[in-house]
Specification:
This protein is α/β, with parallel strands linked by helices and about 240 residues long. It has eight helices and eight strands; from the N terminus they run E-H-E-H-E-E-H-E-H-E-H-E-H-E-H-H. Strands 1, 2, 3, 4, 5, 6, 7 and 8 form an eight-stranded mixed sheet that branches. The protein is globular. It starts with a strand and ends with a helix. The mean pLDDT is about 95.
Length: about 240
């Protein structure tokens, strides 16, 4: 299974990442990726950029070092009602939106609140991807979340950094195995990501790719294998705005 894209990539604008868009694209080109994304943190994350940063992304070239650069954001889920920290006016022009829960923005509470927050966020028509729902800090009802992803045409992310032993997250293997099983059951598309915060980590998805291969999920559900699959999944949701 060949991966050609990695859209969950951070730049120095996120405040705790260390490379530029151009450096990310150069590394992506060197390892044979055709598409990357700019997925900097939404403004409620400490150190994240102002709203104007997201409004001005149109000036970034579509092609850098021969790599297609998709413009997006990793917005923050801010409360149990699924409120996110970018308005529709900012999200609508973007190529994609990842929504995720981060302890720097929202404190973990309980399974019911976490589950509700993710489901409500996925009901936003501009949220294309649910980011790292395998984060054990935010315990969830996995089946309810994946069932909601199927209902709302939302992609589930398989996040390589969640499996990193030095990550701020922990116990990432079991939740992601469970997510893969449920995505297979409910025919929910998945998207592997590096969640790179340094350019040499762009495209580094080896740990999560191993889990995906072991799950025997159909290749047609793994959006990294073909940009057309990703674009079609995004369009399915946007067509019901």
């Amino acid at each position: 299974m060949q991966f050609t894209l990695d859209i969950h990539c951070h730049t120095i604008a996120s405040g705790h990442a260390y490379s530029t868009v151009t450096e990310n694209a150069a590394h992506a080109a060197s390892i044979g990726l055709t598409h990357i994304g700019i997925a900097d943190h939404g403004p409620n994350m400490p150190g994240a950029p102002h709203f104007y940063y997201f409004g001005n992304m149109r000036i970034v070239p579509d092609i850098i070092h021969g790599v297609r650069v998709l413009k997006g954001a990793e917005v923050n889920i801010c409360d149990a009602e699924g409120t996110i920290d970018l308005t529709d006016d900012y999200m609508k022009p973007m190529d994609f939106i990842i929504a995720a829960m981060h302890r720097g923005v929202i404190a973990p509470t309980n399974k019911a609140d976490h589950t509700r927050a993710m489901i409500k966020a996925m009901e936003n028509p501009y949220v294309n991807v649910l980011g790292h729902p395998g984060d054990s800090w935010f315990d969830i009802d996995f089946e309810a979340v994946v069932e909601a992803a199927a209902r709302t045409n939302t992609i589930i992310e398989m996040n390589n950094q969640t499996l990193n032993p030095i990550s701020f997250r922990y116990n990432g293997i079991e939740p992601q195995i469970k997510l893969l099983e449920l995505c297979k059951k409910y025919h929910v598309p998945i998207l592997a990501s590096s969640d790179a915060h340094y350019h040499t980590l762009v495209g580094e998805m080896s740990d999560v790719k191993k889990l995906i291969l072991e799950s025997n999920i159909p290749a047609s559900q793994v959006l990294n294998t073909d940009p057309a699959l990703l674009f079609a999944a995004i369009e399915r949701k946007r067509s019901i705005e």
